[in-house]
Design a protein that fits this description.
Helices cover 32% and strands 24% of the residues. By secondary structure, the protein is of the alpha+beta class. The chain is globular, with a radius of gyration of 21 Å.
Length: 491
């Protein structure tokens, strides 16, 4: 079998940033992970729990070599977060809700504006409570509800309208005036996953989704107004429309209670049916069904519906972000979608001349130059890859590479990756005023409650620069620009 919990995980370096866990016992394929000295120290500190999860994933039927994790790796439900696994339906490959996650199609959207930093933050970060910055922060906090279970009072869908979104994603909102056609062109998969079916979604999921479209939610979800702090690749940055000192907005959220309920429903169902298909699990959180089984096909229909809800959620938030900028006096904001990509889903893709179902959990696409799925203006350079950091430091824009297509099923890291649990982060923040500390850095924070800020302190995350060093150095994404926060709205 794969190494048991508590046993040492044996691995070997392949290159400076790439490591292999050789196939052993019931592992069907090797495990591969990407890291640096700092990442290895983190893995050792967590007693290699997330690598243990990676070896468990490697035992699942129909997996295509290798089982992967990226440098934002940390322990998750079943699969490690930062995990990537591809399954061949013709070889009995399975689909596992734990390999997608509870926040189905959680993702990030980057908006690029025509504004300069000095228009939003005239003091250059020296004055946290600059009136212009505060006015914009307050407008964003009003326009985009955040917090646990928070819904909208000014935007309600009836059942028929919600069903249209579940089947078609963000498109129906654009048709109703909540965005522009170009928004969809710069969204992964055009803002819609095909194959969704209404009958694959429970009544409870419908109930949870009706009021939550256009909301951030809680946890690590956020909205940040940022500025371009440094450019590493002038040619690509110009193609992406990024200029040093330019203002951007990063939106990070997903399918809210709707997607969580869809995942919950199918995890429970798969726990019942896994034995029927003779699937031996190293961890019950890996509950699975064959891709081509009735249960597997139904889950993919429900997952696609939840993914479409998430695409629509970020589209509606974009509309309200634009409204907030106008309310705050920035009528010439020029906010355009640079790109949107997803973190938690499963997609049928062609890799190595075969069709596989790629699970990405806390991982993102990083398609390289020439891929037909990319917007035409980015196709010759590679897909924009958005890697958020923590709220006190920086985020990065990268570009996908041919190396990612060869080595990681076209995948890259999705963020910094947690280092402390939420409980431990709150304990570390005890006795401190994190909002004031952020203000001392010139960053305005708005949040539904103080605890939401405390559990997201910078120390709770790896330094995203370490993660980016690995994926850039390993050749699976290349650095384009760095973004620093001006305003943070937390869930």
């Amino acid at each position: 079998m794969a190494p048991k919990d508590g046993e040492p995980i044996s691995f070997e370096p392949i290159s400076r940033y790439k490591y292999r866990i050789p196939k052993q016992g019931k592992m069907r394929v090797d495990g591969v992970f990407y890291g640096s000295k700092a990442i290895l120290e983190f893995l050792e500190a967590e007693n290699y729990a997330s690598l243990q999860q990676l070896t468990n994933v490697a035992t699942l039927p129909g997996i295509v070599e290798p089982a992967l994790s990226l440098p934002d790796i940390h322990w998750g439900y079943g699969f490690p977060i930062g995990g990537v696994a591809a399954f061949d339906p013709e070889k009995g490959g399975v689909v596992s809700p734990g390999g997608i996650g509870f926040d189905i199609n959680c993702g990030v959207r980057l908006l690029n504006s025509g504004l300069r930093r000095e228009e939003v933050d005239p003091s250059g970060g020296r004055l946290a409570q600059d009136p212009r910055k505060v006015r914009l922060a307050d407008a964003l906090f009003r326009e985009i509800p955040s917090g646990v279970g928070k819904g909208r009072k000014d935007f309600r869908l009836n059942r028929e309208q919600l069903e249209e979104i579940l089947l078609a994603g963000a498109g129906p909102l654009v048709e109703r005036g909540f965005g522009e056609a170009e928004d969809l062109e710069h969204t992964e998969s055009g803002g819609r996953l095909p194959g969704a079916a209404l009958e694959a979604v429970s009544m409870r999921a419908y109930e949870r989704g009706l009021t939550q479209l256009g909301t951030l939610g809680s946890g690590n979800h956020f909205l940040e107004v940022q500025y371009v702090d440094e450019i590493y690749d002038e040619k690509t940055a110009e193609a992406f429309g990024l200029q040093e000192g330019g203002v951007t907005v990063l939106i990070h959220t997903g399918s809210r209670g709707f997607g969580h309920q869809v995942c919950t429903d199918y995890v429970e169902r798969f726990l019942e049916v896994t034995p029927k298909y003779g699937i031996e699990l190293m961890d019950k959180q890996l509950a699975s069904a064959p891709i081509e089984s009735p249960e597997g096909e139904e889950y993919l229909k429900g997952m696609s519906a939840a993914a479409n809800f998430a695409f629509a959620n970020r589209q509606l938030i974009t509309h309200f972000v634009r409204q907030a900028f106008e309310v705050a006096g920035y009528t010439g904001h020029g906010l355009k979608v640079l790109y949107e990509l997803a973190h938690n889903n499963a997609k049928f893709e062609e890799h190595g001349c075969r069709r596989v179902l790629v699970h990405r959990k806390g991982a993102t696409r990083a398609f390289g130059p020439g891929e037909k799925d990319l917007p035409e203006e980015y196709r010759f350079l590679g897909q924009p890859v958005l890697v958020p950091g923590d709220m006190g430091r920086y985020s990065f824009v990268l570009a996908g590479t041919e190396g990612a297509m060869r080595e990681t099923f076209g995948s890259s890291a999705h963020g910094a990756g947690r280092k402390l649990s939420r409980h431990r982060a709150k304990r570390a923040a005890r006795g401190r005023n994190i909002i004031r500390e952020m203000g001392d850095k010139g960053i305005v924070v708005r949040a539904a409650q103080r605890g939401a800020v405390d559990e997201e302190i910078s120390e709770a995350y790896k330094d995203v620069a370490d993660v980016v060093e690995v994926i850039h150095g390993a050749g699976i994404s290349r650095k384009v620009a760095r973004l620093r926060p001006i305003i943070v709205v937390k869930g």
